[in-house]
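Summary for the steering committee. The consortium agreed at its last meeting that each partner would contribute one worked example illustrating the joint modelling workflow. Our contribution is presented below. We chose a case with several input lines so that the handling of multiple components could be demonstrated. No manual editing was applied between input and output; the record is shown as generated.
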Amino acid sequence: MELINNWPKYYKKDVVTHYCPGCGHGIVHRIIAELLEEMDLGKQAYLVCPAGCAVLAYHYFDFDVIESAHGRGTAIATGAKRAKPELFVISYQGDGDLSAIGTAETIHSANRGENISVVFINNAVYGMTGGQMAPTSILGQSTTTSPDGRNPEVDGYPLHITDVVANFPGVAYAERVTVASPAAIKKTKKAIRNAFQTQVDGLGYSIVEVLSPCPTNWKMTPVQSCKWIEEEMVKEYKPGLLTDKREERRKDRAC
Amino acid sequence: MSGNHCIAEAAIRAGCRCYFGYPITPQNELGEYMAANIRKVGGVFLQSESETAAINMVIGAASVGTRVMTSSSSPGISLKQEGLSFLAGFEFPAVIVNMMRGGPGLGNIAPAQGDYFQSTRGGGHGDYRTPVLAPASVQELADLTVKAFALADEYRTPILLLGDGMMGQMKEPVVFPEPLSELPEKPWALKGRGDGASRYQASLILDGLAMERHNWKLVRKYKEMAEKETLCELYMMDDADFAVVAYGTTARIAKGAIKRARKEGLKVGLVRPVTLFPFPDKILQKVAHQVKSFLVFEMSTGQMVEDVRLALCESQVEVSFHGRPGGVIPTPIEFSRVIHRYYRRMHK
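What follows is the complete predicted structure of the assembly.
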């Protein structure tokens, strides 16, 4: 009989997870580890983990990892990639990190078309600090700092940062996915594979936004959380391909 | 060559292969020189979107083992403090240039020395210090830039090169060292795991006792630097009974004033700290056996004078202070008048 669920080579074994039950980080971590093995990129991988729950990602990843100050992931990734272009550089960031405190770094690294891959975990809330409102919290969403629900007159509107950067010429690939069902997880893996291949081919900036559950801070069960993504969150953040300029970029390179 | 150009050229010769920065006066010529020249040796110049981004790009390049520099002036250095704290926590080598200007706030773009506290105390959050080198000539800018990279790598720490608008803009002849061909190995750098074991670099240490051990480790490093790396120039001190203490631009002006005072028969000399952290405490304590009085000159309202008083707290000598903050450059005549005033008081 063939063993079809092999443990990924670049994912540490025998580590007790610190993530809450039903959290999406573990799923995306595993996808990254699987892809680095399948695409033979683990030996030169360099991942920037964010300030937030995933700051401890190096407990799980068995390749080189550095931590970042809040929001500065793509600046560190830029420095590392420019200094050593042979590294395969991933910036793993959350929504507060990437679309609030790190907005400038996100916009400008994308606009420069840095040849890095960004994995953007959007759970519409600040997770590690206890469930405060994020730029990505949806209207009406109740959080510890929007106890009566997000009100656009006070808090503004949900920020669609991936859609913003997708318009930049420097962004070769951008897609929004979810991890709310097994089928969606397969799509997520495909999208992240495309993003990684974009970097391997030297085509510029790639980003995958993953709508990801945070049951603890949403005060839901894991099952309710997945349902909330599929029924509420996708109304605000429609999954799908946001830009794919890889062919254009290939032609530019060929010229 | 101007001071700003000189730092950039010396950095390239010292093996610096990445420069990240954001424009701010009075140090723009440094970045411009890098933009024109570092790529010729296969290096990276990138104008960042902010000083915050620049210092984090520095972290990225330092983490993979590249010699890296950023430069700025006072308000921009404030923005870099987040990254400086992380560099210290990570124990990453990097060279950060601050060409100080008048402050607080936007202040002005004239030479000043108001960032002494921020530079020597560890200007960001947390329990760390940044070693600080304070050159006083264009030649010394070259020499100390090369030294800054060597110290950064040897002790795995960010090093501050502290000048001001005057140091950056003035032109003097300079002899550059030969370009370095070999750089030290950095086995800790993240270069991809290859066939070896994976590694990570983090400044997050959740366990209190482990964090405490890390803090003490940094202190031991600074103590070792104080033992081995403290630099201080003594000028006309052999027979002096009165010592001026000044660094950088102020020390240059003080030398002029001391020459005048010497002609007028005053036995005055200069103690010029070249490393501001570690501070030359022991040298000052030795000088205190010889002189009756110290006079500290600064282009600030009085910052280094606190370190002088701390160093001399157990001796009976008098420590006086004369400062011109806000971007006002004192003249040698002004300083020599002040020297006369305190010298007379000492002999009363």
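The mean pLDDT of chain A is 97. Chain A touches chain B at residues 10, 42-46, 48, 55-56, 58, 61-69, 72, 75-84, 86-88, 104-105, 107-108 (CB under 8 Å).
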